[in-house]
Amino acid sequence: MKFSFYISPLLAALVLCRQTTEANSTDNEPTLPLSTDSAFNFNFLIALSDALTGGSDIAPVLAAAKDLKAGDMASFSQRFYKLANYTKAQAENPHNAGDPINVRDTWFSASQYFRRADFYLHGNWSNPLINSLWTEQTAAFNKAIAALPIPGQRVRIPAKEGNFTIEAIWYAASKNQNRKLPTLVIGNGFDAAQEDSYHYFVAQALARGWNCITYEGPGHPTIRREQNIGFIPEWEHVVTPVVDYILLEKSDMVDKDRLALIGNSWGGFLAARAAAFEPRLAAAILIDGVWDTYAGFSITLSPELMAIYEAGNYTQFDQEVLSQREAGKLSTNSAWALDYGLWAFHTHLPSGLFNQSKQYGLRDVVDKIRMPVFVGDAEFEPTWIGQPKQVADALGDKATLHRFTGTAGYHCQTGAYQELTRTIFCWLNKTLGKMEEKS
Ligand SMILES: *[C@@H]1O[C@H](CO)[C@@H](O)[C@H](O)[C@H]1NC(C)=O
Ligand SMILES: *[C@@H]1O[C@H](CO)[C@@H](O)[C@H](O)[C@H]1NC(C)=O
Ligand SMILES: *[C@@H]1O[C@H](CO)[C@@H](O)[C@H](O)[C@H]1NC(C)=O
Ligand SMILES: *[C@@H]1O[C@H](CO)[C@@H](O)[C@H](O)[C@H]1NC(C)=O
Ligand SMILES: *[C@@H]1O[C@H](CO)[C@@H](O)[C@H](O)[C@H]1NC(C)=O
Ligand SMILES: *[C@@H]1O[C@H](CO)[C@@H](O)[C@H](O)[C@H]1NC(C)=O
Ligand SMILES: *[C@@H]1O[C@H](CO)[C@@H](O)[C@H](O)[C@H]1NC(C)=O
């Protein structure tokens, strides 16, 4: 069935036009755009941001931005694959290998470029690059963290409820094995990998004397690939075993009264959900606050498409969404969100994705959250618009709502990690300091 069966062709054209121009328009963004395609602009900014912590070099990313045409997802992948191969060859060159800083930064960068190459590939689950690029990014990252002053340690933690194994990386802030330090537990959301977390939070936390453990659960990149499972709503089944692990295995190094959880991007939902069931956390940080996943996902499709879903016409909805995707009528961001969402939630049908998304909301658990919560909000947030305030309102005096604006106003403060981490660590110091005074 054709889209025009439901609404007139003219209206359909307007709807598609609105979606495409809106998602492409970089006019309202706070920085010089690196592409007319706002999705590409955002991806280039991620790659550039990681340069702060050795995860990229700036000119090669700008060169990719110069070469790539808006909307060409396949070329995006090939261009970063080429850069990743080049950087990997530099890392493997024995001439560079005597210097641990060379080894660390070059492998971190190669790893990051392999991740960028993977980003837009998930429309076809059988594409062998989905796994082969990931094997490359993981191997490159392992070489980089082995070259840190205190090497990162890969850990696998069996879940107690559910049939999966959590993938984690432990980073100690001190060589002294008997010094109890504050510790961050860090998790992502919809798409980012725990390898990304090193550049978003870990390097900055280690420099401030915080230990870190990053983790991945079901639906996250490595577990989706290796264990073949999509997201689960019961995120406490992922975070609680991680907290158990550090309190048991790293008890000499972890200050159990200063344990904080960070959820990045849609991980702002996952972390809040887990925090509701995990009283051992002294604080939680949501970058940003997510109240209702279905409401956010709905924004990625046109109101007309969502009306078909809401009316219960699931078969028509699936046909329309998939045929628009195939015909290249969705914006880059909507096309990516659909491709990636179907893969990460392990369903082939758009209605399956939207059905599942309804299970991921805070309404029923928010009352159980007892610790102080930092709730981030971003001026240019495209998906979770208005939701941080909903989370903060529901948490009442436990919440600190912080709106990042201007050049720090991109989703997850991409491009402004200094401002992000400055804000977070000041809040943690103030919040956990107050708790010490009380006790
Ligand atoms: C907007 O993005 C689409 C693909 O999503 C692309 O085909 C089109 O050329 C872009 N428009 C501009 C002005 O860059
Ligand atoms: C990267 O290198 C691999 C071999 O390791 C090769 O198969 C692939 O085609 C290269 N990719 C690009 C874009 O050059
Ligand atoms: C998906 O990828 C596989 C493996 O490369 C290929 O055989 C298949 O034709 C692709 N499917 C589509 C619909 O492009
Ligand atoms: C757990 O998963 C493994 C591998 O996917 C499977 O072989 C096993 O049967 C599962 N066990 C249970 C109890 O579901
Ligand atoms: C849903 O489908 C029915 C017939 O199958 C149709 O009458 C109705 O208009 C559709 N609703 C929407 C919102 O497309
Ligand atoms: C989505 O939910 C509706 C309503 O419960 C159901 O009829 C439909 O089969 C579901 N679709 C999928 C793919 O699970
Ligand atoms: C933590 O807060 C205290 C009290 O306000 C202040 O003296 C100290 O400099 C802060 N430390 C850091 C690392 O921010």
Report on this model:
- Residues 196-321 form the AB hydrolase-1 domain.
- Keywords: Signal.
- Belongs to the AB hydrolase superfamily. FUS2 hydrolase family.
- This is AB hydrolase-1 domain-containing protein.
- Pfam families: Abhydrolase_6 (PF12697).
- This protein is of the alpha/beta class.
- It folds into two domains: 31-147, Up-down Bundle (de novo design (two linked rop proteins)); 150-438, 3-Layer(aba) Sandwich (Rossmann fold).
- The protein is 49% helix and 12% strand.
- The protein is built from 17 helices and eight strands.
- It has helices at 9-24, 38-49, 58-67, 73-92, 100-118, 129-146, 194-207, 221-226, 236-249, 267-275, 293-298, 303-310, 314-326, 332-344, 350-357, 387-395, 417-438, and strands at 153-158, 165-171, 181-187, 211-216, 254-264, 283-287, 373-378, 399-404.
- The protein has an eight-stranded mixed sheet, with helices on both faces.
- Strand 7, helix 16 (387-395) and strand 8 (399-404) form a beta-alpha-beta unit.
- Helix 2 packs antiparallel against helix 3.
- The longest helix is centred in the C-terminal third of the chain and has 22 residues, at 417-438.
- One 2-acetamido-2-deoxy-beta-D-glucopyranose is lined by residues 78, 81-82, 85.
